[in-house]
Amino acid sequence: MNKVHAWLHGRWAVPGISGLLILASLASSRIWTNQLWGDIFMIAAAVVAGVPVVIKAFNALRAKVIGIDLLVSVAAIGAVILANYWEAAAVTFLFAIGHALETATLNKTRSALAELIAVAPDTAIVLRENEQVEIDAGEVGNGETVLVKNGAKVPVDGVVIGGTGAIDEASITGESIPVEKVTGDKVYAGTVSTGGFLQVQATGVGADTTLARIIHRVEEAQDAKAKTQKFMDRFSAWYTPAIIVLALVLGLVTRDVVLALTLLVIACPGALVISIPVSIVAGIGRGAKDGILIKGGEFLETSAKIDAVALDKTGTLTEGRPVLTDVVVLDAGIDQGLDSDEVLRLAARAEAGSEHPLARPILEAAAEKGLAVPGLPEHTEPVPGKGIVATLDGRRIAVGNVALLEQEQVAETDNSRVAEVVAELAALGRTPMVVARDGRAIGVVAVADKIRTDAAEMVRRLHASGVKKVVMLTGDIEPVAKAVGAQVGIDEVRAGLLPEQKLEAVEDLKRQGYTVAMVGDGVNDAPALATADIGVAMGAAGTGVAIETADIALMKDDLLKLPQAVSLAKRTVANMRQNIAIALITVGTLMFGVIFGGVTMAIGMLVHELSVLVVIVNAMRLLRRRRDRFESTPVRTGTPSAAVDDRVRQTV
């Protein structure tokens, strides 16, 4: 009984009952010579399928909206009045089937949202008074310790405070390979443990989780209208009344009421109305599955026009974590019997008392090589803008730029060699620091921010997807910026920029006629992100502000997601145009067929409903995960390595 009740209230009940009545009508016509029962069954079929349509049309009229339902209602009622019962039943039956199929396939295009909701965890195991208690996921409090066992869903956003394990984060970042988690790592609600045992301190629960924010964003984005869709809505508002007037005029001129009613049916703009929203829903859903959140249809359309991409350097093209790349021993150092390890050790001992950010990679490199750096220097004197001077075992050690040499009155005989080495390293995109002992330059150490291995591949894919210009906007010095740009394949480098100058650079690109996407960290780059046509936030997982405010939020800190987002936007807009073309060609062909004969009301409705389904199926192609033609295995570039042994040089 429950199954019968569910079917009667399901989407297929109306077309199913109407279809059975049509079959009963056709069967009775063969059994009995009297057509009465056949007509009764056929009228009943038209009523069953037509009443919901008439009700919708009436409600729409009350809201002063003339829509497709009104056209079908007028045509069906007119056919009944004219005793064309088969036409009335066929039109309403086919319309009901079309509506049921549309609902089913539209639900399919929203599958990304349904899948996100499905991964939301229902329960959580928490530690309370040293006991494991299973509760609803929504009842977990911030700061509570949650236990995540093998195979379980993570119920909250949090930080691992104990244990190790592997987490499948595909529902958040789109990454199919499980990620190893240890103490201090972040985990997100809705992800799944594939091994291990984790103790997680909850930092976000309920609506405050990353998953909840993603669901909210996708829900809003799929309902947001693109500019083309808004135009189509306005077009339909005029088109439908115009068709009614045209049918009325045609009927009066030809005195053929059936012809006028047929025109009403075949001119329904159903496929045209649905052509854009179904593509947008599918495109945004595909993006959500891949960890690409797009704010809405308007931003999807704009993203398809992107032909210039502006990128920050530090933390975007590079990892934002400098490493030691070179140790050069100068003539004075060799004269004093020093080698590269000793130059590095002296630099590390001097920097041990420094707060400068470039001190860390020197100290880490010394630690990697097992060089002893005992305690702090006897005396440390930071020299703002130049470097640091320290006293070690009674000897004066200076580490800094060339300007520091002048202050330390380093012997002039060393200056030409120092300048040569410094210029060479700077040209390679590294930051050189001279090491001097007691007024003699003994060596040069250099650090560089490691370029991401996929940066060059990202630029190549952006160009392949139609982006004409990739620009680096950075506050770093020009030699370093140009060296990084050359390795990555950047088209234009603008260095030494303050945040407001980055904004001016984006405005300049827009004045040149480009549609600009800006990718940055959202802090220093905030003005430029806001000014760009599309602002892109990378690594937005766990960052509520980025998810809510960015035009495009890339959940994973993966550069290759950027060209993937641009490609998806272009494919979605192309799909929208295909659907519009299918709808217009179908309506035009049917109208030609009606006016010049050959197309009946039932045939017209059948072709119309088929065109709607073709449009929806075409949009559903976007849901398939595909490998773009320009994608390949990322190419590794010649970037600085953290392994100091491979990059340390000694010159004689």
Summary of the model, kept short:
By secondary structure, the chain is α+β, with helices and mostly antiparallel strands. Helix content is 53%, strand content 19%. Strand 18, helix 22 and strand 19 form a beta-alpha-beta unit.
Describe the protein in words:
With 652 residues, this protein is of the alpha+beta class. Among the domains are: 141-204, Calcium-transporting ATPase, cytoplasmic transduction domain A (Distorted Sandwich); 277-318 and 451-567, HAD superfamily/HAD-like (Rossmann fold), CATH 3.40.50; 319-449, Calcium-transporting ATPase, cytoplasmic domain N, CATH 3.40.1110. The protein is 53% helix and 19% strand. The protein is built from 26 helices and 20 strands. The strands form three sheets. Strands 1, 2, 3, 4, 5, 6 and 7 form a seven-stranded antiparallel sheet that branches. Strands 8-20-19-18-9-16-17 form a seven-stranded mixed sheet, sandwiched between helices. It starts with a helix and ends in a 5-residue tail after the last helix. The model is unreliable at 629-652 (pLDDT under 50).
